[in-house]
Design brief:
This protein is α/β, with parallel strands linked by helices and 382 residues long. The chain contains 15 helices and 15 strands. It comes from Herbaspirillum hiltneri N3.
Length: 382
């Protein structure tokens, strides 16, 4: 959903980030809403959070910046796009910070049972390791959605059958596959999930077309390297797209070799914890975000102070959208209702911004006024 990062003051602009699903489903289809957002730009920076990479991106000056890495967007006309090279995946809760924990599993993979995660390729990677004599302990946490026939082409429903065919006997004692069919897509609380990360030596991700992966961000925040294809490295700052943080597999046949290499390097790796915290641990990465936002504001000639940035729960809030149903990744409030409520309730909005989930804390009620009356009312306030 739209995420309120900062409210405007007399001496500083506010910042709101809108997701690409909201851009496509609401703003693109509602000229009045677009006009309302344009009317905010004297006192607000309007950001666009890209929930997926876009290699056919068309720059829209409605948005002052895009939250995406430099390789995540390809502007079709060659226009320079103002970037904040961070997104929801960069704001990992502190519970993931490294601790002195026994490394029980050699390999961890966390992925929903969907086809683009390339789970059969992950299984083949572990099969190749075992066949080569590398008896690694593996934990694969895999939330599985309820069966729906229309999703058969996108969901890997027969995951357990494939696993049981490929691994037998004692191999299943080494390779723990947890298929979880409740509380989809987030079955574990974050403290529990963080324990699994800290108890593992490295993280493997076999997707070949996923650029900014939350689960990889958790790994780097936890102090463990990631073995993956180049697309996954886009979440890292450029100076960290190398060992010991990232081991690139150029093709699927490279995964076993890179896993063995990463495990071998564990004892001698020079890990820069401070660098990882600046880009992945929420209490530090929000400072990094603040610096990027200040530069964007300066480039637009707008005043910006480094105070009052909302710092809580950004890993969820930034990528969540306003839709017609309530859920872990959505809020059943229209974007226009959120903007109107903030304009009419500045004191309450400021209080809400201190809560764990500000947008949910805002007591937003749908207006009984007509759309045009509402637009005129709150545009005048900006």
């Amino acid at each position: 959903m739209a995420c309120i990062l900062k409210l405007p003051t007399e001496n500083s602009v506010g910042v709101i980030s809108i997701t690409t699903p909201e851009r496509d489903s609401q703003i693109a289809n509602d000229p009045a809403l677009r006009s309302a957002i344009e009317g905010m730009k004297r006192k607000w920076l309007i950001g666009l959070h890209h929930n997926w990479h876009d290699h056919n991106f068309r720059y829209d000056p409605l948005f002052d910046f895009s939250m995406a890495g430099e390789d995540d967007l390809r502007e079709i006309n060659g226009t320079t796009v103002p970037l904040v090279p961070m997104d929801a995946c960069n704001f990992v809760p502190e519970t993931f910070k490294p601790r002195t924990t026994e490394k029980f599993w050699d390999i961890l993979y966390v992925a929903r049972a969907v086809q683009f995660k390339r789970i059969p390729e992950f299984f083949q990677c572990i099969r190749d390791l075992y066949d080569a004599g590398h008896k690694c302990r593996v934990l694969f946490i895999c939330p599985v959605p309820s069966y729906d026939a229309k999703n058969q082409n996108t969901v890997f429903y027969n995951i357990r059958e494939v696993y049981d065919t490929m691994f037998i006997g004692a191999e299943r004692d080494l390779f723990n596959l947890l298929t979880i069919d409740y509380r989809y897509p987030f079955p574990f609380d974050l403290d529990t999930l963080a324990h699994f990360y800290r108890s593992s030596k490295l993280f493997v991700h076999t997707a070949d077309d996923e650029r900014r992966c939350r689960v990889a961000g958790y790994a780097w925040a936890s102090g463990i390297p990631v073995v993956a294809m180049n697309c996954v490295a886009g979440l890292l700052p450029p100076e960290a797209r190398k060992t010991p943080y990232f081991y690139e597999a150029k093709q699927y046949a490279d995964f076993p070799t890179q896993i063995v290499r990463a495990l071998r390097d564990q004892s001698s790796a020079q890990w820069d914890t401070a660098l990882m915290e600046r880009f992945f641990i929420e209490t530090k990465s929000t400072d990094t975000l603040n610096s990027y936002l200040q530069k964007i504001a300066m480039d637009r000639g707008l005043p910006y102070d480094l105070e009052n940035l909302s710092r809580k729960n950004l890993s969820i809030r930034l990528g969540r959208h306003h839709v017609d149903s309530e859920g872990p990744n959505s809020l059943n409030v229209k974007l226009i209702d959120l903007i109107e409520w903030i304009s009419n309730n500045p004191t309450e909005a400021q209080h809400a911004l201190q809560s764990e989930d500000p947008e949910r804390a805002m007591n937003i009620k749908k207006s009984e006024l007509g759309l045009l009356e509402r637009l005129r009312s709150f545009i005048s306030k900006f």
